[in-house]
Every structure is written in C-alpha cells, then in structure tokens.
Design a protein that fits this description.
Belongs to the Cu-Zn superoxide dismutase family. The chain has 463 residues and is mainly beta. The chain has three domains: 17-179, Domain of unknown function DUF4458 (Immunoglobulin-like, Sandwich); 198-334, Sandwich (Immunoglobulin-like), CATH 2.60.40; 336-463, Sandwich (Immunoglobulin-like). It has helices at residues 4-7, 301-305, and strands spanning 36-45, 69-78, 84-95, 98-101, 108-110, 117-130, 135-141, 162-166, 170-177, 180-184, 193-197, 200-210, 216-218, 221-229, 232-243, 257-262, 273-280, 292-300, 317-321, 337-345, 353-361, 364-372, 382-385, 396-399, 411-413, 416-425, 437-445, 448-459, 461-462. Strands 20, 21, 22, 23, 24, 25, 26, 27, 28 and 29 form a ten-stranded antiparallel β-sheet that branches. Strands 2, 3, 4, 6, 7 and 8 form a six-stranded antiparallel β-sheet that branches. Strands 12, 13, 16 and 19 form a four-stranded mixed β-sheet that branches.
Length: 463
C-alpha cells in the first residue's frame, strides 16, 4: 500500500533499535590482571519480540525520551553464592557498534582464590541522562524477571541473569532495556491514561448487548489474543482478559478493555497480524445465556492504526451484539464467511489507501469500506466486480451503496479525507467472493471531479 504511514502520519508510533556490541573497550585502559576481570555492559533497546503471554498490569517504566543516555545504574551480585552485592553508577559510551558502559574500577571484579572465574548476576539496570556530569532523568530500564513486561525481552535481569566472568578478561554483556510511549484514549465521556511500552501499540475494545426487544446494556466480555499468520492462530499473547461491568441493569458501566501488541519495525504493517476472539460473559446485564463466542478474526497492525487519532488519541473498537450495528469488521460472527481487500491506488499520483470487508451469513451480506485520501465532500461510487484481479476487474457484480439509495461521501476526519461505509445488504446470491475485486470511483481530472473515474481497487481474500 502506497505510503500508508504518510497518509496516516498522525497515527505512527516509532521505536528505536540500538545494537549492542561484543568488542574490546577503546581508550587507554590497562589490561586486567590474572586475578581480576573487567565487566562491561551494553544497553540494548529491545525490538519487542513476544515469546510468551503478556499480562495486562502496570509496571513502573520511564517515558521514552530523545535525550542521550549518560549513565547506567547497575546492581550486581558476585562471588561464591553471590555473596557480594554492589550498586554501581558508570558513564555510558558509544561507538559505531552501539552503546556500552565505560571502564570503572568498581566493575573490576576479583576472582576467588584458587578459581579462574567468578559468578556474576545482574539484578537491576537503569539508564539515566547526563545532567552536567551526574545522572539526570531515567529514560530506560531493564525489565526484572517476573515483572509484567519481562516476556518482551530476551533476558530480563534478576536471579537468572547470571554468567561466569573469567580472570584476565574484559567482557561485554548486552542488557535489554525498554521505555513507554504515553497515549491518551478517547473515552467519549470518561478519560484515563494508559502506557504503551515500545515497540508495542495499544488496541481497545468496548461492547454493548441488546435484548431481543432492543434494549441496550453495557456488555461483560473476555478476550483472547494470538499471534497470527494468514489468519491462523499462532502463539498465545493474552488468555481470558476480562472486562466486567460495574453496577447492575441500566446503571451498569465499564471502561474499554485495552491491551498491547507488538508493532515490529522489520515487518510490514499489512503483514503483521493478531487473531482475536471476543466472548460474551453471563454477567452481562439483560443477558440470560452462558459464555458465547460472538466475534473472532485476524487484525493487522495497519488496521489497528486506523483507530489512532490526532493529538495522541485512540478510538476503541465497538461491537454491539444483538443490536442493529452488530459486530463490525475486521472481526465477525463465527458462523459467517468473511472476506477482506486491501484497497490500493490505481494511479501512483493518488494517495489513496484503505480496506474493504464483506461478511456473508446465509444470503445476508454486511459490507464495510474505510478509505483515506479520496476527494472530500464528493460521492464515491463503489462496486464488487466479477474478476479476481485489479489488472482486469471485469464487469460490476454488485453495487456497494445504501439501501435507501446513493453512495457514501468522503469527509474530513482528523485532518484527512476519510470515507466510512457500512451497510447490510439482503438477498445476495453472489458465489466465490474470494475471487472478486472491489473498485472505488471518483477523482479529480484536470480540475474537475469525475465520479465514474476508478481511483482504488482491492482483491478479496477469505479470512
């Protein structure tokens, strides 16, 4: 998709990667003697690869800063059975290989008599800025073993961050450190603040339940999240996250359920995805059933970023089970067939991007399109076409218009043109939707708006 991050610049989250080193210390430092060993450490801002389930709990983390790292505050234990405990502050240096701690006599560790190595354990590691030659503000910390975000680094500090330091050596050991990006959440009447550790992004869910008679209630629900490839579940990230209502009946209330997922820098936003299941819980006011899976499906990082707003805000995904609006894409009812198309520009001069979704339950089709970059204030015709390729999309098979007539109009949203269309279309007998395309029309040609001119196309895949 053409420069999606440029189009959605207000929603981008950037993570820093600093490469650790394994080399000799530069500068005129004497080699250690045979009865000592010099320990040096390199802070490495972690890339956020997740290897186990993540807990949704608070942790004391510093807010990310553009300030340069100046000092490392290190807590170590060494000697037989870690009998010696020390807290050390040393300057941080850098070269073309990354960051590392400067030489310090306090990190020249004695080797026990009769031994050739000494056991060293790093229990804490904190990075400070340089404030006129002394530590200023904390900008990074190493997660501690057993803490909420320990799973986001290869090796958290703590009892198991232990290694042998050989006599006469000067070792460089990498330490993973993290910080967080503070982002406000749009709560439409209430507000709280959550934190996102880099390189994680935040996704929030809020739900309603409607009785058969049409009365609305705030929903209680649980959420499971997996890593996903091509719409298939992979490793679990969250298991049974619950959002239970407070109060009873029409007085019940709840905040959105928010959680974090990685936004890896080396993976395209349209390729990195997560599989989500939402289950309605029995304590939902007005609901008399048991736990029921009501929505599931994959969501990409690019789709998550569609919920990002300007000025560091975030909208939540809102489902309404049993209500007229139902379960919106990208998730859907388990029994429905779902299809998705990534909408791409047809002319490289047009900065158009978005998604189209279809959910087919029997002969009832729910269609949704969300497109950035179209001509604002104008009606944009859109259709499902017969063929499977945007290179030859063929004849029109079905118009994606409103039941009462007319096509959607692009409007200004968060400073950029945005079209959002959702409609339930009855009595649709159109087979093989995975072999169809969707085309959006309408663009400026020689200073005049031409509603029939194709501007974007996407090829449907079942998901």
């Amino acid at each position: 998709m053409k420069d999606l991050k440029k189009i959605l610049a207000f929603s981008a989250i950037f993570a820093l990667i600093l490469v650790g080193c394994s080399k000799e210390e530069s500068g005129g430092v004497d080699s250690p003697g045979s009865d000592t060993a010099i320990l040096q450490l390199g802070p490495l801002l972690n890339d956020g690869a997740t290897r186990a389930a993540i807990k949704q709990e608070a942790q004391e983390l510093p807010e990310c800063s553009d300030e340069e790292p100046g000092f490392a505050q290190i807590s170590i234990e060494y000697g037989p059975d870690d009998t010696v405990k020390e807290d050390i502050i040393v300057p941080i240096l850098s070269d073309d290989q990354g960051l590392f701690t400067a030489y310090s006599e306090e990190l020249e560790l004695p080797i026990p008599a009769g031994e050739t190595t000494v056991s060293v354990t790093v229990t804490e590691f904190v990075v400070w800025t340089n404030d006129g030659g002394s530590p200023g503000e904390v900008i990074w910390v190493a997660p501690i073993e057993g803490s909420d975000f320990a799973d986001f680094v290869d090796q958290p500090v703590g009892p198991n961050f232990t290694f042998e330091l050989r006599a006469g050596s000067k070792n460089y050991v990498n330490v993973d450190v993290i910080c967080y990006d503070d982002r406000d959440v749009n709560l439409y009447g209430y507000q709280f603040f959550t934190i996102t550790p880099i390189p994680l992004i935040e996704f929030c869910i809020f739900g309603n339940y409607c009785t058969p008679e049409g009365r609305h209630y705030v929903a209680s629900y649980s959420v499971n999240v997996w890593e996903s490839v091509d719409g298939e579940k992979g490793d679990p990230i969250y298991t049974d996250l619950q959002n239970n209502v407070e109060g009873e009946g029409s007085d019940a209330y709840a905040d959105p359920l928010c959680f974090f997922v990685p936004d890896r820098l080396d993976v395209d936003d349209n390729e990195e995805e997560y599989y989500v299941e939402i289950t309605l819980l029995p304590d939902t006011p007005g609901y008399n059933g048991g736990g029921e899976l009501i929505a599931e499906g994959p969501i990409t990082v690019a789709e998550i970023k569609f919920f990002f707003g300007e000025n560091g805000t975030l909208d939540y995904y809102h489902f309404q089970y049993g209500c007229d609006d139902g379960v919106p894409p990208p998730f859907g009812r388990p029994e429905a067939k779902r299809y998705k198309a990534c909408l791409k520009y047809l002319d490289s001069d047009d900065e158009v991007a978005g998604f189209a979704y279809l959910s087919l339950d029997g002969t009832t089709l729910q269609a949704v399109t969300s497109v950035f970059g179209l001509t604002p204030g104008e009606m944009h015709p859109q259709h499902i076409h017969e063929n499977a390729s945007c290179g030859d999309y063929g004849a029109v098979a079905l118009a994606l218009d409103y039941n009462e007539g007319g096509f959607p109009v692009s409007e200004i949203f968060n400073g950029v043109p945005f079209l959002n269309y959702a409609e339930t279309i009855p009595d649709v007998f159109l087979p093989n939707l995975e072999d169809r395309t969707v085309v959006v029309h309408g663009k400026m040609v020689d200073g005049e708006y031409v509603a029939s001119e194709p501007v974007a196309c996407g090829e449907f895949d079942e998901y």
